[in-house]
UniProtKB/TrEMBL annotation:
Name this polypeptide is given: L,D-transpeptidase family protein
UniProt keyword list: Cell shape, Cell wall biogenesis/degradation, Peptidoglycan synthesis
Presence of the UniProt keyword Cytoplasm in the record: no
Protein's UniProt keywords contain Cytoplasm: no
Region Disordered: start-end pairs: 38-80
Domain L,D-TPase catalytic as annotated: residue spans: 148-262
Length: 270
């Protein structure tokens, strides 16, 4: 499990860069409102380049003299890559941020980084590869557009087909999270909804991810979740490897008012 405990920086240590992931389109043949649409389309694979992620490596320096205190890690006062417009959308009481940065406006490949707000600023946690919607991102999401909505959304409710992995969020275990079928690359969709966290885009906070209430109307889509990655793009959700999603679910704490900040890098920098 990822920890937000601050560790002294090692002069010889390098920051990890995100893993490469293969993108592929999937078909969500399911009777519930996960990832927006249940229609199919086809696309070739996409691969993320660590060079496009914008990450940098720490430079090695001289070892600290014996008995000397290592320098404290630098905690940014602002979320890296997040501009003033996006930052203004983060509630003042939010102490946990799941930052999802897409590789491009039309890319299904993204990266997830956990941040915790401290008195000094935003402390970085785990970093994981992820998928978003097939056609990338949009500021004006509609049902079936195959794009993930850009914005800042609260995270209040979780659920899944399997037992609660230990999250502090309210958890709805239900057979309604069953999914079958395969994606266009032939990958199985089984297990994609074993664990999910509702992203409160057009979702009523305080209800199960399966709840069909659409405050913005049905045409604006819904059923946008964090769910288990099946190896390809989604219809609108953000997907993570199962072990990473379970770690995230155990980390999210309602007392810290967690939010997800999601979009392509250019849009988030506004």
């Amino acid at each position: 499990m990822a920890s937000f405990t601050r560790r002294p920086a090692s002069p010889r240590r390098r920051l990890r860069t995100p893993l490469t992931v293969a993108g592929a389109l999937v078909v969500l043949s399911v009777t519930l409102a996960g990832c927006g649409s249940t229609h199919a389309a086809s696309v070739g694979g996409a691969r993320e380049s660590t060079g496009a992620s914008g990450t940098t490596q720490a430079r090695p320096g001289r070892p600290a003299p014996d008995g000397a205190e290592p320098a404290a890690p630098v905690v940014p006062a602002r979320l890296p890559g997040v501009g003033p417009e996006t930052l203004a959308g983060i509630p003042g009481n939010a102490r946990q941020v799941v930052l999802v940065t897409g590789r491009g406006k039309d890319s299904p490949v993204s990266r997830v980084v956990l941040y915790r707000r401290t008195g000094a600023g935003w402390e970085r946690g785990a970093t994981w590869p992820a998928h978003n919607a097939l056609k990338g991102w949009t500021d004006d999401h509609h049902a079936g557009d195959l794009r993930s909505p850009i914005g800042v959304f609260t995270l209040t409710d979780a659920g899944g087909l399997r037992p609660d992995p230990g999250t502090k969020l309210p958890y709805d275990r239900s057979v309604g999270f069953t999914i079958a079928g395969t994606g266009f690359e032939g990958e199985s969709l089984a297990g994609s909804f074993d664990y999910v966290v509702a992203i409160n885009y057009n979702h009523e906070p305080g209800t199960s991810p399966l709840d069909w209430t659409r405050p913005l109307g049905a045409g604006k889509g819904g059923g946008i979740w964090l769910h288990v990655d099946h190896g390809g793009p989604t219809h609108g959700c953000v997907s993570l490897a199962q072990e990473h999603l379970k770690e995230l679910m155990r980390t999210l704490d309602p007392a810290r008012h967690p939010v997800i900040v999601m979009g392509d890098a250019k849009s988030l920098a506004r």
